[in-house]
Amino acid sequence: MQILGLSGGSPNGNSEILLKTALQAAQEIAPPDAQIHFVRVPDISIPRHFRVSDAKSAQGAIEQSADPSATNEPDDRPFVLRAIMEADIIILSCPIYTRTIPGIVKHFQDMTMGPFQDTAMARHRQRMAAATGDSSSDEDFELLFKPRVAGLMAVGGAAGTDWTPFGLPLMHQMFFSMGIQVVSQFQVNGCGLPGSILLDAAALEKARQLGVLLVSQAGKQDVTFQGPQQGTCPLCHLDMIVVKDGNEVECATCGAQGRFVVEPGENLVTVEFNEEGRKSSVLTETGKDLHLQEIMRVAGSLRPRMAEVADSREHFKKLDTEWLVKFS
Ligand SMILES: Cc1cc2nc3c(=O)[nH]c(=O)nc-3n(C[C@H](O)[C@H](O)[C@H](O)COP(=O)(O)O)c2cc1C
């Protein structure tokens, strides 16, 4: 069993203490040969821009923004990605910075996960290769599709939740593309001094329980989310809801479609997500497939017209020579 801890916080800070608490609890009940690795996300060297080679596994989705000169910066992404691929259990613990996750964690996520590891895209490539008899791919589909479970822990210094809205919702975005199933998540508030998490026995206990739970769910294809809170959305179990037309709503975290329901006779509004609406969630393969179809449709309609703007693109590129501020 491979257990991977990812921390987005300060060295030996609150997020790390929480993470190590969960890892220790996991180690206590894991098989004796279980291996634990811990990565400080801010220590990972990540190129500032996409490389041309990054576009390969992303169906061209980021081709145009790749930077041909970004080849000399150190790049630890392959090593960390391998650790994520091989892990059975991943625990991500992050502080809240300015109401959201640290930018460095988001940068790692954007540069490494997302479309690069999208299982719907990979299944599409696999189908295309089978249909055309192309056996040239060296992609390790078996490893990509293996079941993995994750636990999320967010730590904020503010007393209430009004300064932490984008913590857990953004941490989710790290895992859905690879189909890693989040089975437990929680947020701690009021953790405002270095190490003060050690004064919060309830938070440490939640971390221990998260570690134990993940070991019990590791390797399972279909796992059930275990809380501690069930939340409004039945897929991501969070509460960030986008209000749309009429009584329609969308889960901001995972994209499930639902509607407000006013309970008759009661002063109570609930949100209902039916079977069809749940299929839009990026936590389902159907939801990711819908997005794949959508981006292929968009790119397909734009590609034949790109020659029209070739000169304009050159014009904007050349403005760099006049205006671009360069950093060493
Ligand atoms: C730049 C910065 C911004 C912060 N913004 C928030 C915030 O918006 N909401 C909040 O609850 N705490 C905020 N905090 C407090 C941290 O989340 C809190 O101190 C946390 O325990 C730090 O975790 P660490 O020790 O793992 O780094 C912020 C801290 C820093 C350094």
From TrEMBL:
Region (Disordered) residue spans: 56-75
Pfam families: FMN_red
InterPro entries: Flavoprotein-like_sf, FMN_Rdtase-like_dom, ISF_SsuE-like
Protein name: Flavoprotein-like protein
Keyword Flavoprotein: yes
Lineage: superkingdom: Eukaryota
Keywords from the named record: Flavoprotein, FMN
Phylogenetic classification of the source organism: Eukaryota, Fungi, Dikarya, Ascomycota, Pezizomycotina
Boundaries of every NADPH-dependent FMN reductase-like domain copy: 1-121
Gene source species: Aspergillus pseudoustus
Keyword Mitochondrion: no
